[in-house]
Amino acid sequence: MSTIVKTTSTVTPTEKYTTKNVNLKFVDNLSDYQVHHDDTDIRGFDVRLSTGEKIGEVEGLLADVPARQVRYVEIEVEDDIINRHTLGTYTNEDRNVLIPIGLVKINADKTVTILGLGLDHFVDYPRFNRTNGYTTSFEIDTTNYLSDFHEFGSSYNRSMFDSPDYRRRDRHDNNFYMSKFFVGQ
């Protein structure tokens, strides 16, 4: 799991893209934080499925600043994957997805593999236009989608988190991030 460390004493965010979860910030926007030196900064890495098929590139890392933990890898989806989508639900601008950090395997060849997702799962994965900002409701949609088929789904308390109260919150508590989706195996 990637951690972030404070490098200066003042917060001077230069937010190009934002989130609506007050605790989650893009590491790129945190001028006084960086990925811990013992962890690999995977921004810019190619993203592959376990079959080896490239599905995109790591666009950003979303960190829970109070917890100093990276919670999500943001992926910009390849055009080929976008063009395979048959439901007509998403536009070409909806090309970003959030992958919980527990599903990410970092490889020696500067790629990452998404564990437990096949192409069919990824084609219908919840997408978002990153300029709109990610919400706690979008986080819930993502984990709900994953819990329907992923082996880590049983570690996620869907009945607790998929409620109007949780969807309206401006942040999630640590309980939300305790499933294997975020902590791995």
Task: Give a brief rundown of this model.
The protein is of the alpha+beta class and 185 residues long.
Keywords:
6 helices, alpha+beta, 24% strand, 185 residues, two-stranded antiparallel sheet, Photosynthetic Reaction Center, Chain H, domain 2, 7-stranded mixed β-sheet, 9 strands, globular
Topology readout:
Layout: E1 4-6, E2 24-26, E3 33-35, E4 46-49, E5 54-64, E6 69-77, H1 79-84, E7 96-100, E8 104-106, E9 111-114, H2 119-123, H3 136-147, H4 158-161, H5 164-168, H6 180-183
Parallel strand pairs: 4-9
Antiparallel strand pairs: 1-3, 2-5, 4-5, 5-6, 6-7, 8-9
Outline type: globular
Number of domains: 1
Order of helices and strands: EEEEEEHEEEHHHHH
Mean pLDDT: 85
The largest sheet is: 7 strands, mixed
Q: What's the end-to-end separation, in Å? A: 11 Å
Helix content: 10-25%
Per DSSP, the total helix count is 6
Q: Briefly, what CATH class?
A: Alpha Beta
The fourth-level CATH homologous superfamily is: Photosynthetic Reaction Center, subunit H, domain 2
CATH architecture: Alpha-Beta Complex
